[in-house]
Design a protein that fits this description.
With about 450 residues, the chain is of the alpha/beta class. It is about 40% helix and about 20% strand. A hairpin with a 5-residue loop joins strand 5 and strand 6. Helix 5 packs antiparallel against helix 6. The structure holds aspartic acid and magnesium ion. Aspartic acid (ASP) binds next to loops.
């Protein structure tokens, strides 16, 4: 089976849905299509939820009305056949009826998740009606029947595997399936989600669950680039990455792929392809077990990083000191990204300030603590990067003028990470593009 995931912009306009319908009917193997909400919808639903939680619920009513208007117009463009158009309008009425009712009940976490789920529910139903109009045989599979979280709110791959088997068995002979990205059920059987941007994760989990031959992620850019095309002029698509390289790039800021979506594919050794809906014949990027080549491949940057410098003269030769520090971060479920040590100090970075004050208060009991906000991690990724000729020399020569705050090298065979004040990010990415990639 082939898994194909299309993001919000790939289905965000009626003509794009037409394009997607052509792409998904070319495969010789059975195909399962994962769709995001139409672009902008999830953001609008978040805004609706926020407004519902505020004293001024009128704002929610206005936002719901504006969103409904958008869907009504979409239907007119997408569906020409009267009976199918009527079905679509009826379906949209039901979903908006639900959104309107939410104004009358008090907002809970569970209701919030229900609201957020409407985007993917509507996009897949609209697309399914479009396929019906075009007489393209398919089945619409409800993700809420098989995308399952465990008690820790992590995807339960074994449960997903069993459930999806049962759901697919209800459609013998079908070769094309459509389902929702992002949405799932948690262990309390409530509607939940895989967090923002989670449709990639859905695709990768399903690919692992059905042991697909490939997991294709279709977006609006021709693969993963060597640098951030939004701030650097000359960037090139990377043809091949290993799972490890891709995971580092996604985690350290490459926007094209959700960082969590690598592990399920990696576990079952299923290649992930990043492809461009607007340019379907471009080769894109393939992510697989083998890296394909040695050396520097890409650089990514992750903003909103907080550096915490922890200093203690008693740390000198003291075992157990690092454990005490890590325990504080563990207690507040705050992952550490980068870490460097000296004889008397440890510096770590985190990307969430939710528990920052509690963390600082506890660390203050065992050491002197300094905090620096507005930092950016710049990560240079490449297979066997350490073996690359004079890589550190070239890197530091290129960024000579940048005030680097931390350096992490040797943690893996494929990463060099630098911490810099965020104001120097664009310059740093540009300098690296010249100095390391010769672009
Ligand atoms: N629609 C969801 C979001 O915008 C999930 C996704 O697009 O991947 O976050
Ligand atoms: Mg999206």
């Amino acid at each position: 089976m082939v898994i194909m995931k299309f993001g919000g912009t790939s289905v965000g306009k009626p003509e794009r849905m037409h394009q997607v319908s052509q792409l998904i009917t070319r495969n010789t193997e059975p195909t399962l299509v994962v769709l995001s909400a139409l672009s902008g919808t999830t953001n609008a639903l978040v805004e609706i939820s926020t407004a519902l939680a505020s004293p001024n619920k009128q704002i929610a009513a206005e936002k719901i009305a504006a969103l409904e208007k958008q869907y009504r117009a979409f239907i007119i463009d997408l569906l020409k056949e009267e009976t199918i158009r009527a079905k679509a309008n009826e379906m949209i009425t039901e979903h908006f009826e639900f959104l309107k009712i939410t104004q009358k009940i008090s907002l809970s976490d569970a209701l919030n998740k229900d609201i957020l789920a409407q985007g993917e529910l509507m996009s897949t139903k609209l697309f399914s009606l479009y396929l019906e109009q075009e007489k393209i045989d398919h089945a619409l599979l409800p993700a809420l029947e098989f995308m399952q979280l465990d008690v820790n709110d992590e995807p339960d791959l074994t449960a997903i595997q069993e459930k999806i088997k049962g759901v697919l068995a209800q459609h013998p002979g079908k070769r094309l399936f459509i389902t929702q990205g992002y949405i799932c059920r948690n262990s309390r059987a409530e509607v939940d989600n895989l967090k923002r941007g989670g449709s990639d994760y859905t695709a990768s989990l399903i690919a692992a669950a059905v042991k697909a031959s490939v997991c294709e992620i279709w977006t609006d850019i021709d693969g993963m680039h060597n640098n951030d095309p939004r701030v650097v002029d000359k960037t090139v698509a990377i043809e091949q990455l290993s799972f490890d390289e891709a995971a580092e790039l996604a985690y350290f800021g490459a926007k094209i792929l959700h960082p969590t979506c690598i592990w399920p594919a990696q576990q079952e050794n299923i290649p992930v392809k990043l492809l461009n809906t607007m340019q379907p014949t471009a080769v894109g990027t393939v992510i697989k077990k083998e890296a394909g080549s040695v050396g520097v491949k890409a650089v990514a940057a992750k903003d909103n990083i907080i550096a915490i410098k922890i200093k203690s003269s008693r740390m000198l030769l003291a075992y157990g000191f690092l454990r005490k520090i890590f325990e504080v971060f563990e207690k507040y479920k705050t992952p550490i990204d980068m870490i460097t040590t000296s004889e008397v100090a440890v510096s770590v970075t985190i990307d969430s300030d939710i528990h920052l004050s509690e963390i600082i208060a506890e660390l203050n009991n065992i050491a002197l603590v300094e905090v620096e906000k507005n930092q950016t991690i710049v990560s240079i990724v490449g297979n066997e990067i350490a073996k690359t000729d004079a890589v550190l020399n070239k890197l530091f020569q290129a960024i000579n003028e940048v005030p680097v705050t931390m350096v992490s090298y040797g943690g893996s065979h494929h990463n060099i990470s630098l911490l810099i004040p965020s104001e120097h990010k664009i310059k740093t990415l540009q300098l690296i593009n010249k100095g390391l990639f010769n672009l």
